Amino acid sequence: QVQLVESGGGLVQAGDSLRLSCAASGRTFSTLAMGWFRQAPGKAREFVATISRSGGSTSYADSVKGRFTISRDNAKNTMYLQINSLKPEDTAVYYCAASTYLALPSQDYYPYWGQGTQVTVSS
C-alpha cells in the first residue's frame, strides 16, 4: 500500500506562487510514477502534471504549461508542484497520486491518492 499526504496550499492573490508537496510512504518511492490532479468548484477532477519514476520525463496539461513545474526528490520520498503566476481559474483542490505503471495523464491509472490541499486564488 501507498500513503500520500499533500501540503502547501493556501489563499493567495493572482500572480503569486505556491509550492505544493506530496509526501509518500508505504513502498519504495522510486518505483512509483506520480501525478498531480485538481478539482475545481463544480467541475470533475482533471489532469495537471505527471512525472516518471526517475523524474526524467514529465507532462503537463495545456492550461498549466509554462507556469507549473513538477519535480520529485526520491531521497526524500517527496513530489513537488511549483506553481507560478497563479490565476483565479487555478482555484481547486490539488491531489497527488501514485501509479505502479506509467505516468499517464489519466486518473484511471492511479490507484493511490492523497487527501488533497486547497488552493484558492483571488483576483
Describe the fold and architecture:
This protein has no helices and 11 strands. It has strands at residues 3-7, 10-13, 18-25, 33-39, 46-51, 58-60, 68-73, 78-83, 92-99, 112-113, 117-122.
Low-confidence stretches: none
Structural class: mainly beta
Distance between the termini: 40 Å
Question: SSE string, helix = H, strand = E?
Answer: EEEEEEEEEEE
Shape: globular
Determine the fraction of residues in helical runs and give it as a percent range. under 10%
Rg is: 13 Å
H/I helix tally: 0
- Beta content comes to over 45%
Could you give the count of β-strands?
11
Task: Put the structure in a nutshell.
The chain is built from no helices and 11 strands. It has 123 residues and is mainly beta.
For the structure shown, list the relevant keywords.
123 residues, 11 strands, four-stranded antiparallel beta sheet, mainly beta, seven-stranded mixed beta sheet
Task: Walk me through the topology.
Blueprint: E1 3-7, E2 10-13, E3 18-25, E4 33-39, E5 46-51, E6 58-60, E7 68-73, E8 78-83, E9 92-99, E10 112-113, E11 117-122
Parallel strand pairs: 2-11
Antiparallel strand pairs: 1-3, 3-8, 4-5, 4-9, 5-6, 7-8, 9-10, 9-11
